[in-house]
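can u do me a favor
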C-alpha cells in the first residue's frame, strides 16, 4: 500500500527531499547537493582524527599523509628544463668561478662542441660563467689544470652520489622530472593502527646453462684427449669409450624416435602429457639424473605495499564532519581527473606517508617513498545499521571502518636502505 505523504516527502521539490521532479517516481536526484559536510577544494586544510592526536598520551604516534597532485585546482607541474646530466653539472658554478678567476676567463676545460652537444647544459651553459672558462685555448697548458679539473671531478662525483637521495627518487631526478608534482593543500593525520609492517622481496629467475655446460664438458674432454695423445702417443680411456658412446647414442636415437611416435599417438587420442621415454630409458640405464646446469639470476625488486585499517567512532557533529572530509580527500586524490575536453585523464595524486611520534619523525620505523593509493574500502555503520539523529544532510552512521592500500612507486636499492627506508 502506497502512502501519499511518503511519496510526497520522497519525490517533492522542497528542501531536504531525496529526489526532484514529478511525484509519480519519475524523478532525478538533486545533484547540486553533494555532501552534508562543508568541503572547499581550494582551501588549505589539516584534518586529523581523533582531535587529541599528538596531544593525548594515548595518541602520541600517528601517520601524516601529504598529497602531491599532478594537476589540481590552480596547481601546475613545473618540470626541470634539463636532465640530470645538464642541470647537475651546472651546480659546479663555484668551482668554475675559481677556475675563471685564475685563468682570466681565457682557458678551456673541454672543446666547445662538447658543451653545445647538450651534455653539460648547451647554449645557456656556454653563455654563463662556466662558458667563459670553456671557451678559449687549452687548460692543460695553463699550469693549474690538475687542480681545477680535480675540483670539478670531485664536485661531479658528489652530484652523482647525491642522485636519488631526494624525495622523488633516482629515476625522476635522473630524467629531470623531479618537482613535476605540487603539494596539494590538504594534509591528513590519522592515529597509528596496530600491526604496521614492511616487506622486502626480490625476484630471481632460473637461467638454463645446460647447453653451455654440455659444450664445456665436451671441450674439456677433447683437450684432455689431445694432451693424452701428445704425451703418450696413444688415446686415453675416454677415446676408447667413444665408440661405445656412439653406438649407445644411436640406440638412444631409436628410443627418442619411438618416444616421439608414442607422443603423437597419444595426442591423436586426446591424451595429455608426454611419455619422456628417452629420459626414462637413460635414467634407468645409468641410474643418474641430468645435472640441470641452472643458475638463479637476479631479476627485479618487488615494490612494497602498505595496508592500514582505521575505525572511526565519532562522538560529535564536529568529528563526523572531520571524518567525512578525510574520506572525501582520500577518494578524490586517489582518482584521475579529466583533462580539458575530457579526452585524457590526468594521473592521480601521489601520497607521502610519514610516521610521527609527538612532533618528530619516528626513525625507529621505516620510511616510505611516494605511494599510489590503489585501494579504499569504506564500511558504513554496524549491523543492525544505526545512525545519529537526522539533520538536513541525512543521518550519519555511528561507526565507519576505513581500509587503505598503498603501493610504493619507487624500486628500493641499498642506497635507500641507508636512508632509513
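np, heres the sequence
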Amino acid at each position: 500500500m502506497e502512502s501519499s505523504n511518503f511519496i510526497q516527502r520522497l519525490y517533492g521539490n522542497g528542501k531536504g527531499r531525496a529526489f526532484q521532479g514529478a511525484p509519480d517516481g519519475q524523478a532525478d536526484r538533486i545533484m547540486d547537493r553533494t555532501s552534508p559536510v562543508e568541503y572547499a577544494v581550494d582551501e588549505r586544510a589539516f584534518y586529523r582524527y581523533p582531535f587529541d592526536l599528538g596531544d593525548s598520551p594515548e595518541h602520541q604516534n600517528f601517520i601524516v599523509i601529504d598529497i602531491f597532485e599532478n594537476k589540481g585546482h590552480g596547481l601546475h607541474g613545473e618540470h626541470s628544463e634539463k636532465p640530470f646530466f645538464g642541470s647537475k653539472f651546472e651546480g659546479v658554478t663555484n668551482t668554475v668561478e675559481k677556475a675563471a678567476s685564475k685563468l682570466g676567463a681565457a682557458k678551456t676545460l673541454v672543446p666547445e662542441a662538447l658543451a653545445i652537444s647538450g651534455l653539460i647544459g648547451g647554449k645557456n651553459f656556454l653563455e654563463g660563467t662556466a662558458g667563459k672558462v670553456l671557451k678559449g685555448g687549452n687548460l692543460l697548458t695553463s699550469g693549474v689544470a690538475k687542480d681545477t679539473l680535480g675540483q670539478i671531478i670531485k664536485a661531479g662525483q658528489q652530484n652523482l652520489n647525491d642522485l636519488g637521495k631526494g624525495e622523488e627518487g633516482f629515476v625522476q631526478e635522473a630524467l629531470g622530472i623531479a618537482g613535476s608534482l605540487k603539494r596539494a593543500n590538504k594534509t591528513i593525520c590519522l592515529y597509528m593502527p596496530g600491526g604496521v609492517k614492511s616487506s622486502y622481496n626480490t625476484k630471481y629467475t632460473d637461467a638454463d646453462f645446460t647447453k653451455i655446460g654440455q659444450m664445456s664438458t665436451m671441450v674439456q674432454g677433447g683437450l684432455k684427449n689431445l694432451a693424452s695423445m701428445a704425451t703418450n702417443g696413444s688415446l686415453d680411456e675416454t677415446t676408447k669409450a667413444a665408440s661405445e658412446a656412439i653406438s649407445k647414442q644411436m640406440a638412444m636415437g631409436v628410443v627418442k624416435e619411438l618416444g616421439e611416435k608414442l607422443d603423437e599417438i597419444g595426442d591423436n587420442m586426446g591424451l595429455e602429457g608426454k611419455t619422456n621415454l628417452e629420459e626414462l630409458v637413460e635414467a634407468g640405464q645409468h641410474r643418474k639424473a641430468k645435472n640441470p646446469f641452472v643458475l638463479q639470476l637476479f631479476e627485479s625488486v618487488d615494490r612494497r605495499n602498505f595496508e592500514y585499517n582505521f575505525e572511526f567512532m565519532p562522538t560529535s557533529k564536529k568529528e563526523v564532519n572531520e571524518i567525512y572530509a578525510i574520506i572525501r580527500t582520500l577518494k578524490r586524490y586517489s582518482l584521475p581527473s579529466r583533462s580539458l575536453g575530457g579526452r585524457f585523464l590526468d594521473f592521480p595524486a601521489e601520497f607521502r606517508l610519514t610516521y610521527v611520534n609527538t612532533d618528530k619523525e619516528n626513525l625507529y620505523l621505516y620510511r616510505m617513498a611516494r605511494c599510489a593509493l590503489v585501494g579504499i574500502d569504506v564500511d558504513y555503520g554496524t549491523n543492525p545499521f544505526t545512525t545519529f539523529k537526522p539533520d538536513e544532510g541525512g543521518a550519519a552512521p555511528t561507526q565507519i571502518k576505513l581500509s587503505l592500500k598503498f603501493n610504493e612507486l619507487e624500486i628500493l636499492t641499498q642506497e635507500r636502505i641507508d636512508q632509513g627506508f
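The chain has four domains: 1-33, 34-75+188-201+304-417, 84-175, 222-299. hope that helps!!
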